[in-house]
């Protein structure tokens, strides 16, 4: 967006020169002009498309045909209107029923309470529940459990198990026990985000004790639950298994112009003081309805027209889906003042998480580098709430280079959807069946990946009407993340000025406004204010509490009994669609112009501040990699280990000679053929992952020496021939590239030299295939693969 420069991450020693204020303002004006022109063109294109569709749909009619078309249309219009208002009445009644029931989690599965954190030493309004599998689903006690953390971002829990085809559903069908971290509507007085993270870590330890499986529990975090999952992994890395982060903002300043307007909200509102003000109006309680308001603000065309018109236009088929979703969307949960302040100061405005400055107690910060488990990041190009830049950029902040990431032994897998929106990442049944199901499949093998950054692609294979999926992992470099940025992250610099303005405004508010306002707002007036929030009013005002709506139910029953359907190909329906398209296009034009104006104002104000403050701009130091023992003493580690280490090293040497792509189907085939022979499956997932990381680092540092010292890990000729037999078996049964196959003679030369059998003190042992476990028959291998 601007030409304000940040540190070049590839050349940390260089400090680019900041532009002049005139250059900055000229660039901002140029972008603003382009956005206004693009908005006008989009409006004209939408209206042109709608006009052409109207012309194509209309045809000459006789007077009788025109009369019949108009009569049936207006009869249908009247009936749809009654049914529409009756659906809104049902929505209001459902909302009241849910409120009176205490707003329980909206899970599509039965569940039982395991632990209630309201009884902990530091109580919080969270609980751990176990999902009771349906009668048709059996879980495998040998498989690791899943712990799903739903977002506490205004709405209630349940989005991860909202329907059968969901994150909960696909994990259950794969045989995994599933737990969900839920929360209650009202916070416990005095609870903090640190208390919440500690409670979630305690839940994780409890699940681990209930399921002492080979692998540690998988943590799945959705949206706000994603960074909550990362905090738990940082607090208790010894208990956390792989972490799946779905649509979660982790790098809050990131984004691109014309795509991600929400990131400017903190600056345009002057920082965190508005959240404090809203909390004080609530008597020290922050109303989650404000957060839902922010989401609805993003797309006024859908909020003010599109969603309701879709219900009106499809009134015979849409109400069930509409009411189901509105039960969750209309449940507004609360936070206390300190919780929302920590979130805004440390995350939304401060962006301190990746820098290691987000403290959970005095002098103790969350250190994401302490996470030792593999991480899967799932984002979408169609998500304007958590854009891919916010989901992925923290990786480059934490690990400036690929070498840093590998030195820390970290595995990060990124999955990008092309178009799905933010909520679709969690609630879409098609996304659950495709993306989430493949994530569950990959998690069985992820701890055997060498450290690195991987791009995950899902390949569809259609045969005889059935669809099968395969996962392709392509090794990427951290530096490749720059492809997501329009301006090489130079547009993030002004957000540093936002942080300083926020700190100033918050200190002024705390000094002069909070002491007075805090004493004026009583708990009763705070509850009344929440009840009168427009988002709540639209529910209870259109319900059976409203006497003016009493006849609607009977009218709706009459309309359903005597339903008259319009001619969907008629001129009247074409006119309705033209009008609807015009209204939608007008709201979209308003949104685009509004967002462009807000963006322009943001960069004119804070960009100018950042230019003035260029000399004193805070630069986050590059993260120091956590050097492991293998990084400090690679030569010594080269000669340490046994058969399992040798087999892993050989596999990594073969993989290194390929195109840096791995197929999940190939990994399954390899496990079926030689998995138990290698020995990794006899170890805990943590121990197996440690061996893979160590050997990967040795191969990465010095592949030639790693090959040369391979025989030293195998003290007997029998072990060498056994490993060679495994390699030959794999080369025969697995498709490998010519460069990889060319390594087999080198392995033979190293492991089976034609020499005296007593040379180097080695005694001849039985042949390799006799020493190795007998190969499975093809039918056995197919069963193992399944």
Automatic annotation (TrEMBL):
Basic and acidic residues composition bias: residue spans: 776-786
PANTHER family: POLY(3-HYDROXYALKANOATE) POLYMERASE SUBUNIT PHAC
Protein name (database record): Poly(3-hydroxybutyrate) depolymerase
Region (Disordered): 753-786
Top-rank taxon: Bacteria
Low complexity: bias regions: 764-773
Signal peptide start-end: none
